[in-house]
Fold Carbonic anhydrase.
Amino acid sequence: MFTEALVSRNAGGHVKLDEVLILDDFLGLREIMVVQHTDCGATHFDIPKFHQTLKRRVSEDLDLENNNFGFISDLKESVRKEVHLMRQSPLMRQEIKDHIFGFIFDIKTGLLEQVA
Ligand SMILES: [Zn+2]
Protein backbone atom coordinates (compact mmCIF):
# COMPACT_ATOMS: atom_id res chain seq x y z
CA MET A 1 0.00 0.00 0.00
CA PHE A 2 1.25 3.45 -0.92
CA THR A 3 0.58 6.56 1.08
CA GLU A 4 1.01 10.05 -0.27
CA ALA A 5 3.10 12.41 1.80
CA LEU A 6 2.90 16.15 1.56
CA VAL A 7 6.17 17.76 2.57
CA SER A 8 6.22 21.33 3.79
CA ARG A 9 9.75 22.57 4.39
CA ASN A 10 10.83 25.75 6.07
CA ALA A 11 13.80 27.20 7.92
CA GLY A 12 14.19 25.53 11.30
CA GLY A 13 11.29 23.13 10.79
CA HIS A 14 8.95 25.32 12.80
CA VAL A 15 5.25 24.55 12.49
CA LYS A 16 3.04 27.14 10.83
CA LEU A 17 -0.27 26.29 12.45
CA ASP A 18 -2.30 28.29 9.91
CA GLU A 19 -0.71 26.34 7.08
CA VAL A 20 -1.38 22.99 8.78
CA LEU A 21 -5.02 23.90 9.38
CA ILE A 22 -5.54 24.94 5.77
CA LEU A 23 -3.79 21.86 4.38
CA ASP A 24 -5.89 19.67 6.65
CA ASP A 25 -9.05 21.36 5.39
CA PHE A 26 -8.03 20.93 1.73
CA LEU A 27 -6.54 17.46 1.91
CA GLY A 28 -7.76 15.82 5.09
CA LEU A 29 -4.44 14.99 6.73
CA ARG A 30 -4.17 11.67 8.53
CA GLU A 31 -0.81 12.00 10.26
CA ILE A 32 1.65 14.79 10.84
CA MET A 33 5.36 14.28 11.29
CA VAL A 34 7.46 17.18 12.53
CA VAL A 35 11.05 16.57 11.51
CA GLN A 36 13.96 18.75 12.50
CA HIS A 37 17.55 17.81 11.78
CA THR A 38 20.94 17.75 13.44
CA ASP A 39 23.35 20.54 12.56
CA CYS A 40 20.46 22.78 11.48
CA GLY A 41 21.38 26.37 10.73
CA ALA A 42 18.76 27.41 13.29
CA THR A 43 20.95 25.83 16.00
CA HIS A 44 23.97 27.91 14.97
CA PHE A 45 22.26 31.28 14.98
CA ASP A 46 23.88 33.99 17.11
CA ILE A 47 20.79 35.63 18.61
CA PRO A 48 22.51 38.46 20.58
CA LYS A 49 24.47 39.41 17.45
CA PHE A 50 21.31 39.33 15.32
CA HIS A 51 19.47 41.48 17.88
CA GLN A 52 22.30 44.00 17.73
CA THR A 53 22.18 44.02 13.93
CA LEU A 54 18.45 44.75 13.98
CA LYS A 55 18.84 47.45 16.63
CA ARG A 56 21.56 49.15 14.61
CA ARG A 57 19.39 48.93 11.51
CA VAL A 58 16.11 50.06 13.09
CA SER A 59 16.45 51.52 16.57
CA GLU A 60 18.31 50.82 19.80
CA ASP A 61 14.89 51.01 21.49
CA LEU A 62 13.67 47.84 19.79
CA ASP A 63 12.48 45.32 22.37
CA LEU A 64 13.66 41.98 21.02
CA GLU A 65 14.21 40.27 24.37
CA ASN A 66 11.46 37.67 23.84
CA ASN A 67 12.00 37.09 20.12
CA ASN A 68 14.52 34.40 19.28
CA PHE A 69 13.61 34.37 15.57
CA GLY A 70 13.31 30.59 15.47
CA PHE A 71 16.67 29.86 17.08
CA ILE A 72 16.88 26.28 18.36
CA SER A 73 18.98 25.66 21.46
CA ASP A 74 17.73 22.10 22.12
CA LEU A 75 16.52 20.01 19.17
CA LYS A 76 14.43 17.54 21.18
CA GLU A 77 12.78 20.33 23.12
CA SER A 78 12.14 22.22 19.89
CA VAL A 79 10.45 19.25 18.18
CA ARG A 80 8.37 18.54 21.28
CA LYS A 81 7.31 22.19 21.41
CA GLU A 82 6.13 22.11 17.80
CA VAL A 83 4.17 18.89 18.37
CA HIS A 84 2.67 20.32 21.56
CA LEU A 85 1.66 23.49 19.72
CA MET A 86 -0.55 21.45 17.39
CA ARG A 87 -1.82 19.01 20.00
CA GLN A 88 -3.01 21.76 22.33
CA SER A 89 -4.62 23.89 19.64
CA PRO A 90 -8.43 23.93 19.86
CA LEU A 91 -8.41 24.48 16.09
CA MET A 92 -6.91 21.07 15.29
CA ARG A 93 -9.19 18.05 14.76
CA GLN A 94 -8.96 15.52 17.60
CA GLU A 95 -8.42 12.68 15.10
CA ILE A 96 -5.27 14.34 13.83
CA LYS A 97 -4.07 15.35 17.31
CA ASP A 98 -3.71 11.67 18.14
CA HIS A 99 -1.48 11.20 15.09
CA ILE A 100 1.11 13.93 15.42
CA PHE A 101 4.67 12.72 15.89
CA GLY A 102 8.02 14.41 16.22
CA PHE A 103 11.40 13.25 14.93
CA ILE A 104 14.99 14.32 14.68
CA PHE A 105 16.75 13.43 11.44
CA ASP A 106 20.44 12.74 11.98
CA ILE A 107 22.16 14.06 8.87
CA LYS A 108 25.27 11.94 9.52
CA THR A 109 23.57 8.55 9.97
CA GLY A 110 20.36 9.17 8.00
CA LEU A 111 18.37 7.83 10.94
CA LEU A 112 15.15 9.28 12.34
CA GLU A 113 14.78 9.34 16.11
CA GLN A 114 11.25 9.71 17.41
CA VAL A 115 11.19 12.23 20.25
CA ALA A 116 7.47 13.03 20.46
ZN1 LIG B 1 17.73 23.18 9.16
Notes: The first helix runs from residue 17 to 27. Helices lie at 17-27, 47-57, 75-87, 94-97. The chain has four helices and three strands.
